[in-house]
Amino acid sequence: MRTIDVQELAGEHGRTDVDVIDVRMATEFREIHAECARNVPLDSLDPHAVIAARNGSADQPLYLICRSGSRSARAYKKFLDAGFENVVNVKGGTLAWHRAGLPVVRGKKALQLQQQVQLTAGFLILLGVVLAYFVHPSIVALSAFVGAGLMFAGATGYCPLASTIAGMPWNRCEGGGSCSA
C-alpha cells in the first residue's frame, strides 16, 4: 500500500492542487477535517464515480484520509479492486493532520458512531433484562440477540446496528451524502 505522511502531503498541497478524499461519515467530516479534503463516505464510495469527477488530472495521485487510517485503507483496497492504482493512503489520518498543526476546518460536533452503537446496544440489553424481570422471562431474548450481534460485529468487522444508525437522519448532513462545516 502506498502511503504518505501528513507533512509530506501538506508540502505537496503547498506546491500543487492535490485531490484528498475523506472517507469518514459526513457528520465526522463536518466536525473536523483537513482543509484540503472533500468528503465521500466509505459506505457510499464508488471508485469509478470518484475518478470520473476528479478535481485534478487523472495522472495525479488521489489521496485517501479518514480518522486514523483504517477506513482509508479499506477505501484504498476498493480503488485497487476497481483497477485504479494511483491512490495513496494518508498515514495517521485526520488525527495526525490535526496533531501536526496543519489547517483544519471545524464545524458542528456530533457523537461518534461507535458511541451511538454503544448507547443503543446498552439500552436494548438493559431494556431486555428489565422487561424480562417485570413482564415475561422470554423477553430476555432481546438482550441475547443484541449480545450475539455484538459478537458477530467483533468477529466479522461488520456491524448491522452501526450500519443502521449511520443511516439515521441525525447522522446525515443537509442535502445528502457530503457536507461542509
TrEMBL record:
Q: Which Pfam families match?
A: Rhodanese, YgaP-like_TM
Q: Could you tell me the superkingdom of the organism this chain comes from?
A: Bacteria
For this protein, the parts annotated as crossing the membrane are: 117-135, 141-162
Entry keyword annotation includes Transmembrane = yes
Domain spans labelled Rhodanese: 14-106
SUPFAM superfamilies listed in its UniProt record: Rhodanese/Cell cycle control phosphatase
- Which CDD domains does the record match to this protein? RHOD
Quote the SMART domains the UniProt record gives. Answer: RHOD
Q: Which UniProt keywords apply?
A: Membrane, Transmembrane, Transmembrane helix
Q: Which Gene3D superfamilies match?
A: 6.10.140.1340, Rhodanese-like domain (3.40.250.10)
On whether Mitochondrion is a keyword of this UniProt record, the answer is no
By what name is this protein known? Answer: Inner membrane protein YgaP
What gene, per UniProt, encodes this protein?
ygaP
